[in-house]
Amino acid sequence: MAKTSESGAFVEKFILQPTSSSQQLPLSGLTFAVKDIFDVDGYVTGFGNPDWKRTHSAATLTAPAVLDVLEGGATCVGKTIMDEMAYCINGENIHYGTPTNPCAPDRVPGGSSSGSAVAVGAGLVDFSLGSDTGGSVRVPASYCGILGFRPSHDAISTSGVIPMAQSFDTVGWFARDPTVLNRVGRALLHLPNVNPVTPSQIFIPEDCFSLSSIPSARTTGVLIKSIEKLVGGSILKHVNLGDYVKEKVPSLHHFMAKGNDHAYNIPSLAALSSSMRLLQRCEFKKNHAEWLTTVNPNLGPRLSKRIWDAVRSPEENIGICRSVQTELRAALTDLLKDEGILVLPTVPGDPPKLQTDLASLEVFRARAFSLLSIAGVSGFCQVSIPLGMHNNLPVSISLLAKHGSDAFLLNLVEAFYDTIQEEAGFAEKFTN
């Protein structure tokens, strides 16, 4: 199927009107798009692959998350392109085309929610829905220079969303405006309006930022100056997250003993990533191995090996992966307490160029999943915030809050956003 929209974001265009005509609804007048992983009544959910679409029937119900934003007053304008079977963070799809990154057309848009991010970044819709299992909202948000929110795990129903790996699957969303991001979040999370709360502490793990190729002046420097201006610098704390995780998550030692101590990474976070990917592969296999082996679909060459490796992977050490999840959530909850924030690079550097050889991305991907697995394994909520451009490429930073603190994090982004953007613009002038 050919691309059906400017920027190549959409796989299918249609209109779903709000379920109420009231102008007083929180999302009235806003348009949105949905990743082609969400069921919409009367449409086949394509899951990024033509053979999947060919072998499945039209949905008879609309996913609750889609219904929530329709009931909030928003209008849906179509479904967006995604990576095949949600199994990549690049956003390149050989069947439907790769959506054009609005910030850097020669770079990947990020996946697997590529079309949803591009639709927002290109100004085609006000917000969009995606899914985030291993980073599929956070990565494209960073690459496309927009806001992207991964909620606390299980905070939003994933009913009517094709599962990738249920231990990590979340419904996420994108916006250009922090107020819209907040309003959409309240509709999805069924949250009342509450006043913003100042963070008790903001933790900056210098070891994590050492994984990034972006100068600290464009990431932590911007945030530190913003916080000092808004609430004073006394709440800023520096921490070595790798050491903390190594000490507090003893089950990780099993994975650290398997060759994850690389000079280019943080051993405990590399082990965390290994644990996440093992459980992810196991759950993906349970969900989709039967269809894959029965249909033998045409898969893109850059994804085929990884998908079939997952299908053939042994189901071992799953209990240890579960222990890692429990221990990490407890450790990070103890670190952040009620109103603490953990700051991270969303990704370890610039968006890769289109069609970059996968072997040359090995270190980048390893670092990316070390960072992404922190929220993924703990189930914490995370938001990626754009910080303008550096060397003509988009820059971002992420904030994490403990599980269930979604309203706190959404309010914080809205309250701090303008100051962060002012500091980012100032830094951009002197570091590009």
Topology order in helix (H) and strand (E) letters: EEHHEHEHEEHEHHEHHHHHEHEEH
Class based on secondary structure composition and strand pairing: alpha/beta
Span between N and C termini? 40 Å
Please give the CATH architecture. Alpha-Beta Complex
Fourth-tier CATH superfamily name: Amidase signature (AS) domain
Shape: globular
List the helices and strands and how they pair.
Blueprint lengths: L9 E7 L14 E5 L14 H5 L9 H8 L3 E6 L33 H8 L5 E6 L5 H7 L2 E4 L19 E6 L2 H12 L11 E5 H4 L10 H11 L5 E4 L1 H8 L4 H4 L10 H29 L5 H12 L5 H19 L3 E5 L17 H17 L2 E10 L2 E9 L4 H26 L1
Could you explain the architecture of this structure?
The chain is of the alpha/beta class and 432 residues long. The protein has a single domain (8-428), classed as Amidase signature (AS) enzymes, CATH 3.90.1300. Helices cover 39% and strands 16% of the residues. The protein contains 14 helices and 11 strands. The protein has an 11-stranded mixed beta sheet, sandwiched between helices. A hairpin with a 2-residue loop joins β10 and β11. The model is unreliable at 1-5 (pLDDT under 50).
